[in-house]
Amino acid sequence: MLCCMPGVAFVPALLVSWSSAAFIISYVIAVLAGHVEPLVPYISDTGTKPPESGIFGFMINISALLGVITMYIRYLLVEKQNESSHFVRSSCNIFSLCIGLMGCIGMGIVATFQELSVPSVHDIGALVAFGSGVVYITLQSIISYKSCPQWNTYFVCHIRMAISVISCIAFIPMIVFASQISMTKIDWTPGEKDYTYHFVSAICEWTVAFGFIFFFLTFIRDFQ
């Protein structure tokens, strides 16, 4: 695997694979244990009750750490490229890194403070994680365009911007519909009160989460 990914390309590859596994494993265990319905639960719903809560918390915290490492390497990479090309202000690169680190802190809060135990803290962490994540990938898409054609292809830039736009569009209804839910629960069933709000918000949440994963997937070539 390392021979196929020279440089530090294994870092975003590990982030993508580990984060995907964290979501999928927690979901499968939660569904098999009967803790959530199979049809689009919130991501946090799949990591609320044991045994999946321990797995979810551990794996998401590792994902947050891998996110920090990936973002910092990306920052150093842009700084090094910028020495010869001067395509972006250093302050913009630093700002993007700070926003990304805020998102990783939010992930740590989500993993540590579970949804049913401390819902207010959990919700703040989720808002910070998703909000900062959307801003980070948007800024990185803009930086990518500025680095064309020397350091990036327009094809990759178009993919990154498309992912950013989709994530931004999904983020808004995710927050709006979630704010309309009047109760905190994880065992949602079709037809009950606020289920429609939950269903739409959950779909948007999964869309944004996997938008982040696909975005970091595009970093592999850069990190080589």
UniProtKB/TrEMBL annotation:
<dbReference type="GO" id="GO:0012505">
    <property type="term" value="C:endomembrane system"/>
</dbReference>
<dbReference type="GO" id="GO:0005764">
    <property type="term" value="C:lysosome"/>
</dbReference>
<dbReference type="Pfam" id="PF10277">
    <property type="entry name" value="Frag1"/>
</dbReference>
<feature type="transmembrane region" description="Helical">
    <location>
        <begin position="7"/>
        <end position="33"/>
    </location>
</feature>
<feature type="transmembrane region" description="Helical">
    <location>
        <begin position="197"/>
        <end position="220"/>
    </location>
</feature>
<feature type="transmembrane region" description="Helical">
    <location>
        <begin position="124"/>
        <end position="143"/>
    </location>
</feature>
<dbReference type="InterPro" id="IPR050911">
    <property type="entry name" value="DRAM/TMEM150_Autophagy_Mod"/>
</dbReference>
<keyword id="KW-0812">Transmembrane</keyword>
<feature type="transmembrane region" description="Helical">
    <location>
        <begin position="53"/>
        <end position="73"/>
    </location>
</feature>
<dbReference type="GO" id="GO:0010506">
    <property type="term" value="P:regulation of autophagy"/>
</dbReference>
<comment type="similarity">
    <text>Belongs to the DRAM/TMEM150 family.</text>
</comment>
<keyword id="KW-1133">Transmembrane helix</keyword>
<feature type="transmembrane region" description="Helical">
    <location>
        <begin position="155"/>
        <end position="177"/>
    </location>
</feature>
<feature type="transmembrane region" description="Helical">
    <location>
        <begin position="94"/>
        <end position="112"/>
    </location>
</feature>
<dbReference type="InterPro" id="IPR019402">
    <property type="entry name" value="CWH43_N"/>
</dbReference>
<keyword id="KW-0472">Membrane</keyword>
<protein>
    <submittedName>
        <fullName>DRAM1 protein</fullName>
    </submittedName>
</protein>
<feature type="domain" description="CWH43-like N-terminal">
    <location>
        <begin position="8"/>
        <end position="224"/>
    </location>
</feature>
